[in-house]
Amino acid sequence: MSSSSSSSSSTELSIPLHVKYIQSLGENKDDLIYHMTSHLRLNAIYWGLTALCVMNRQDALDREEMIAFVMSCWDEEAGGFGAHSGHDAHIHATLSAIQILILQDASDKIDVPRVVNCEPSKHIFHSRRTLPEMLTEGLPLLVILSLQQPSGVFAGDAFGEIDTRFSYIAVQSLSLLGQLDKLNVDKTVSYVLKCRNFDGGFGAVVGAESHAAMVFVCVALLAILDKLDEIDQETLAWWLAERQLPNGGLNGRPQKLEDVCYSFWVLSAMSILGKLTWIDADKLIQFILSAQDPENGGIADRPGDQPDVFHTLFGVAGLSLLGYPGLETIDPAYCLPESVTKRLGLRKNWKALPKRT
Amino acid sequence: MSSDAFNSTTALLRMNPELYTVWNYRRNIMTQTMFPASEPAEVNDALTEDLSLTFTLLKQHPKVYVIWNHRRWCLENVPDGPTEDDPQGWKMANWKKELFVVEKMLDADARNFHAWNYRRYILANMANAPPPSTELAYTTRKIEANFSNFSAWHQRSKVLNTLWEEGKLDEKTSKQSEFELVQNAMYTDPDDQSVWIYHAWLIGTGEDASLLHREIASIQELLDEQPDSKWCMESLVRYKRLLLRKHRPSLSVVEGEQLLQDCSALLAKLAETDRLRRQRYLDILQELQRPSS
After folding, report:
1. Is the Cα dihedral A89, A95, A96, A99 positive or negative?
2. Domain containing residue B213
3. How far is B245 from chain A (nearest CA, A)?
4. Do A198 and B200 touch (CB under 8 A)?
5. How distant is the Cα of B85 from the closest Cα of chain A, in angstroms?
6. Is the ipTM of this complex over 0.90?
7. Which of B179, B201, B223 represents a domain boundary (last residue)?
8. Are residues B8 and B113 in the same domain?
9. What region holds the Prenyltransferase alpha-alpha toroid domain (chain A) (predicted)?
């Protein structure tokens, strides 16, 4: 853990240290902590891999091993991915799986049956179909669409927890698979718009208080579906700008504490609205850097706390949108590198700050 | 066999309540194995027990989505009973406890949005829910305990909308008392943005010009006392711009010019004092100075 004196003196992003930190996460599979976080494993791999991509070190984790692990999380019965081998399918883990496979450019190179044959779930793939064929023809798509509720919101799985986060996950998944034409866009958007509050923000369900994480998912969803003209952008950008606190960090709601993860959630929405200049970038950069662990790498929620891979991604993603030098630009609507969304023809009209030198 | 498996899920979830697959497995054991072989009273007992388990877990992990979600599932699966004459008895008994549970959770953390969302879910779905006027009184208590609790102000805005739409409160009179409540809070702590955001909700889209004039005068008074108050200046710009946008034809040329000048001066000062958001003020200033505005 970092001491506050050493962390406050860090003024640069320690890329080699963060790379080492992310590499170390998969190494101790006997640790209790590894098993205690198994319900987030696939998400954690996506967070780590995306952070590495932003730091231009995608090569730091073994590609074949990662793809094999992702495929081992396939839940044949439900038609989606679970967070870990043997866990039930969930829409969140399914998006992470799709994102990882796309980041690894596994869609046309990977020989699915071979990879899958190494894993316990080998019985599920009979033909030598490629991954995109499997994904687009197969169950995930049907399952994602089947999770849409009559109100237009999506559920996370068959047990029916609903949330605008799941709507965003469904929309991003379909978009990455090139299947948005199968989505009932009006119904999806109409639920999201019902979650909008007078302060310009969005909540998790109808009636819920505005929260920066839900603002991210709702604004990114509207951006992907080209529906940003439906909202009051000026009021929302004002609410977002008011998330910055005197210490430079951002909070998620009025009168709450700062946290590094909001560096992405708030900035994502601001860059989609073209309003990143409405906060103090220098002070936010300093805040994110001060939350680094200068000894073992990784970024924490705030200075002095224990780092984790979640805050490490959202810290570097925030720095990327602020134009921090040496980082690949992150696409705020997908939380994937811009090079990837450009390659897929999915880049929308958002604006990061100019790259610093 | 299934009772062993069921007990294992309890042990695992006490260790790590975020294991969503274990919750799923537990629900599957209940619905597929236990419930078909049980009397309705036993089903009700099992669900009541799970409600107690999740309350224990929530006290340690108040922000874990899947625990809240399991509570909803339990409530929604309470069977009819105890008797044919009283089919709602068990449901009522279980649902009634929920308001108590959620109040405990909000006493521990008055901003926990999981708890607030759950509260709204309970109020919307329980039979014999307390009326919105009771909920309004609850938000008053929460706000009086802490003016900074924006979650309570937010809930208040939703409850008042319901009361106005249902005609249970006269919108005009009730708004007036809301303005008094807010003004009290503004004077207590002019830097607390919760209060100002709520004030902006009360003003709404600014169709009422006399209301705008009155509130502008009242905020100006506070600004005279606290000349550096960012939120006074921010709100004055907002409401003066609303006057310009919505009521230009009713203003004289001189009045219009004066409002523009006021806004420019306030924005220039905000750009100097609220440095974090400097560019926003400069952007609005530039927009105001464009001839078309």
Report:
1. positive
2. 204-293
3. 14
4. yes
5. 31
6. yes
7. B201
8. yes
9. 16-336
Is B18 an interface residue toward A (CB < 8 Å)?
Answer: yes
pLDDT one-digit tens code per residue, A196-222: 999 999 999 999 999 999 999 999 999
Instruction: Report the alpha-carbon distance of residue A29 to residue A35 in Å, rounded.
Output: 8
Kindly state whether residue A353 falls inside one of the protein's structural domains: yes
Q: Which residues pair with A331 in a beta bridge?
A: A336
Are B236 and B173 in a shared domain? no
Two structure tokens written together for A220: 């990114």
A27: tokens are: 């190494």
Render B273-290 in DSSP notation, one character per residue.
Answer: H-GGGHHHHHHHHHHHHS
- Tell the residue number behind the tokens 């299947």, with chain if given: A179
CB–CB of A263/A318 below 8 Å? yes
Q: How far is the C-alpha of A94 from the C-alpha of A79, rounded, in Å? A: 9
**Is the CB of A159 less than 8 angstroms away from the CB of B276?**
no
Task: Give a yes or no: residue A350 inside a domain.
Answer: yes
Whole-Å CA distances, B266 to B4, B227, B284: 70, 11, 11
What is the mean pLDDT for each group of 10 consecutive residues in chain A (357 residues)?
Answer: 42 96 84 78 96 97 92 81 91 93 73 33 39 52 83 92 96 89 95 97 98 98 98 97 98 97 97 98 98 96 96 98 98 98 96 95
Cα B4 to Cα B10, B17, B20, B31, distances in angstroms: 10, 18, 19, 16
Tell me the per-residue pLDDT of A120-176, one tens digit each, with 9 for 90 and over: 333 333 334 455 555 544 555 667 888 999 999 999 988 889 999 999 999 999 998
Whether A207 and B158 lie within 8 Å, measured CB to CB = yes
**Residues with Cβ within 8 Å of residue A302, at least 6 apart in sequence:** A249, A257, A258, A259, A260, A291
Number of separate domains in chain B: 3
Give me the CATH number covering residue A345.
1.50.10.20
Domain for residue A46, yes or no?
A: no
Residues of A in contact with B113 (CB under 8 A): 203-204, 208-209, 211, 253
Output b/e per residue, B108-142; b: 16+ Cβ within 10 A. Answer: eebbbbbbbbbbbbbbeebeeeeebeebbebbeeb
| A241 and A125, same domain (yes or no) | no
